[in-house]
Amino acid sequence: MSDAPLPLDGFYAVIPAGGVGSRLWPLSRADAPKFLHDLTGSGQTLLKDTWDRLAPIAGEQRIMIVTGRAHRAAVERQLPDLADANIVLESEPRDSTAAIGLAAAILERREPGVVIGSFAADHVISGEALFRSAVVDAVAAARAGYIVTIGITPTEPAVGFGYIECGGPVAVPGAKLVEKVADFVEKPDLESARRYLEGGRHLWNAGMFIAKASTLLDELARTKPDLHAGLVELAAAWDDPATRGPAVDRIWPKLEKIAIDYSIAEPAAEEGRLAVVRGHFQWDDVGDFASLAKLNTAGRSGELAILGEHARVLADASSGIVVSRSNRVISLIGVHDIVVVDTPDALLVTTSEHAQRVKAVVDALRLGGSNDVL
Questions:
Q1: Category of 312 on φ-ψ map: left (φ > 0), alpha (ψ -120 to 50) or beta
Q2: Backbone angles phi and psi of 259, in degrees to 5
Q3: Which of 174, 274, 293, 355 has the fewest Cβ atoms nearer than 10 Å?
Q4: CA-based R_g, the chain, Å
Q5: CA gap 116, 111 in Å, rounded
Q6: Cis-peptide into 93, omega within 30 deg
Q7: Alpha carbon distance 328, 345 (integer Å)
Q8: Which pairing describes strands 312-316 and 282-284: parallel, antiparallel, or unpaired?
Q9: pLDDT of 156-201, one tens digit each?
């Protein structure tokens, strides 16, 4: 008999699997986004890693995926145990509020009072027991009426993440430590990030949200009533195939595009309805090639990470990362913190220092009409 922890009662996990991950171009593309790649050498995609992490907490039949129509086949190949009723297809991207809000509205109709947790499909997490512990505390706080986020204890003064300022503990039955959120902080400058790290009151914002579906919807009705009305109308038509398609075609393109941080989290924090649980597990959003290099060298400077099943790389006194998706021989001599991404139709060469600027290249290609490589 297994002594593994049982799934949490009344809890549903939602995985928004959208976005391209443009800072990982040309590896990540519209037809092969970041969550469909193995970026850690685990032998499976980030999406499958996320599923495997959440299945023991929610149960395989209680995980909902929200993704684009174009990715349905790939998602279903990755997740053969995904229930057909639990794949929600977006006709076009409308940002995280629409994706998570629609999931909340559908699940609240199916199971009134359900607690949902939204977890990105393309993050890397290790420390399964610590992750589960944070989710358990967050679910307890959600049952107490809070919208809850899980913040990550900073390990360095990173300027690529948003920060959550903790406002002091609140008593929640069944949870070890839950704190009020005093403020959300956008990506800071280096001096501010150093101050946040030293002060101990700020956590990295990892974009995880846990709440009763009804609480999320009530907050959305307060801040974005038109968006809320559209999502509730969509949910009412969702589980009938005869009404779903026409409702999506009529409603979805008109929904406001806005991130859940702005539509729900920040307003809830201002009203004292947002709480945070500190996550002590290891977390990385793999936001650019610099973080991917660090992830694959365990943070050791001076090493070269090589990704690609058939990569042919010769290196002498070089460090950084090489991602190879071609049969070319790549030779590096005396270069440091370099980023080389070689694919059959596009080549990227930059440095770790400038890895965040890859998105600007993608924007320029899009404006120039080079959609064939996007």
A1: beta
A2: -75, 150
A3: 174
A4: 21
A5: 11
A6: no
A7: 12
A8: unpaired
A9: 898 888 899 999 999 999 899 999 999 988 888 899 999 999 998 9
